[in-house]
Amino acid sequence: MCPQGPTCCTSTMEENLASLSAQETEGLIREAGRSLQASFNSLHRSFDTYFTELHGRSERSLQEVLSSLGPLYSQNTRLFAELYTDLRQYYRGSALNLDENLSDFWSRLLERTFKASAPTDVTLSEDYFECVAKQQETLRPFGDIPRDMKTKVIRSFVTARSFVQGLLVSADVVKKVSQVSLAEECTKALMKLIYCPHCRGLASVKPCSNYCSNVMKGCLANQADLNPVWQELI
């Protein structure tokens, strides 16, 4: 692998040094990857904790505000709890349709409210209540609140989920890309770069930065192809 001429290395020593240079380079790449991977994992934990705390605080705040309604709220706490559970599951990656879930929430809330406010001396069938719920868009009993809430919640949760999943995907990509298996040509190039000077008695001489850069560009050519997609992800 090294240039012909006077040498301190036998063929076996060259092979051993070539293997060593490949192992050292793979280790450096993994180490660089671990640092970046740790950054993404730290960002994910930080954001996930922050968003989860906001979600919990929102649920507790709503409970405090609505508890003043007495039985009208206490008899329907499950409805609100299920909404927050659905939102939490969507954030965690569930294939829920937020638009449908929020529409269903307001329909059920209308039905419950209508039942509670209906005269006690009048018997109304379940079909009647179901019909009322389906006429929500026409009746608009809650005004613009359902539409405004739906728009804001969907925008917030789609963004939050995309961001937190992006951090996880980024860490996973870095992990996989850092596990480089160096080709034979790369191993030879690394040997010439790092250890061939040793075989000529020039152990203290370091290669210039351009030489190092060119060798690594050749060794990591496949990873370099990922750059445009990676930049788009970032």
Automatic annotation (TrEMBL):
Record Pfam families: Glypican (PF01153)
Record keyword Secreted present: yes
Membrane topology of this protein: Lipid-anchor; GPI-anchor
Keyword check for Iron-sulfur: no
Keywords noted in UniProt: Acyltransferase, Cell membrane, Disulfide bond, Glycoprotein, GPI-anchor, Heparan sulfate, Lipoprotein, Membrane, Proteoglycan, Secreted, Signal, Transferase
Gene Ontology terms for molecular function: acyltransferase activity
Localization per record: Cell membrane; Secreted, Extracellular space
Primary location group: membrane
Function: Cell surface proteoglycan.
Protein family per UniProt: Belongs to the glypican family.
The protein, known as: Glypican-1
Natural source organism: Ataeniobius toweri
